[in-house]
Amino acid sequence: MHQLIRDQALEIPPITGHDRQLTMLLCSAGRRVGLLRAFRRAAANLHVDLRIIACDVQPEWSAACRLSDLAVRVPYADDPDYIPAIEAICREYNVGLVVPTIDPELLPLAEARERLAAVGTTVAVGDRRVIEICRDKLRTATFLAEHGIPVPRTIDLALADRRDWNGPAIVKPRSGSAGRAITRVDDLGALTGIAPEPMVVQELLEGEEWTVNIYFDRAGALRSVVPHRRVQVRAGEVEKGVTGRQDQLMEIAGQMAACLPGPYGALCYQAIIAADGSAKVFEINARFGGGYPLADYAGANFAQWLIEERLALPSTAANEWTAGVAMLRFDAAIFVRL
Fold it and tell me: pLDDT tens digits for 268-305?
């Protein structure tokens, strides 16, 4: 059963003076303060009284949980009690919108969409079909290649003929995220040891790295495409970036929209643009990416569009945003008494 963090500073305040009301649950909140604040700005723009519940396995150590209206302790996403805990929170607090933030919770939440819809909760996640593609890097590469979208050569490590690889490659977990366990290998034949999980070997791409934030409405229609160049990355997350209307990447997003099964809400993909101008896609995330606040400040307000859809308000979703907006992240802290 879920456990509430009962701190006076975290209690949900009374609702006053608003006709539009919504309670949302931000899952695996962790450090996602920028995303939480994007939803609060969106609610203010729409004159919506938004109450944010944030959950995590250790909410007392989560900055986003501390800045939410209520913090809730839940099990890990792979725990059988995870979805029952989420459902209990949604029932108890009349949650209208659930927003996932990390890969491991996507499939459980996608599979529970109808179960949560029965209690009046919309989960901002696509069908399990699109999640299964995005969560497996080998499947991602195979699927995209089958639909004419350029990808790096990608092979299951267990099946790779190491004599058939010339030059450097990347070895990474098939279901990894946040840059976990990625290794550059200059000579695949010299790779030793047995991987503790399924891995892929992928052609090493060189050039400019880009993330493309994309938004699909509830009908699965592509509404916005926002590329940003990853100028500097730390721990797999963009630290410095700048938005740009990169035509090739925007066209690739349109190709994805034509073939991905059941996307909904925020997704992002990563690509490398080589010196010759060609682009290859090496990853898709079926959730808000860590760099989403940059797209939000540039005018692509995915958070607002999700609120509008949930409350049946007129949609303002559009592909109108500003190029040349830079994000320069810095370390900050909040201070609490334990």
Answer: 999 999 999 999 999 999 999 999 999 999 999 999 99
Same domain, residue pair 242 and 306 = yes
Q: Which domain covers residue 261, as residue numbers?
A: 131-135+206-328
Both 197 and 212 in one domain: the answer is: no
Indicate if 73 and 185 belong to the same structural domain: no
Buried-state track 247-276, b at ≥16 Cβ within 10 A, e below 16: eebeebbeebbeebeebbbbbbbbbbbeee
Q: pLDDT band for position 180 (50/70/90)?
A: low
Average pLDDT over residues 67-83: 98
CATH code for the domain of 284 = 3.30.470.20
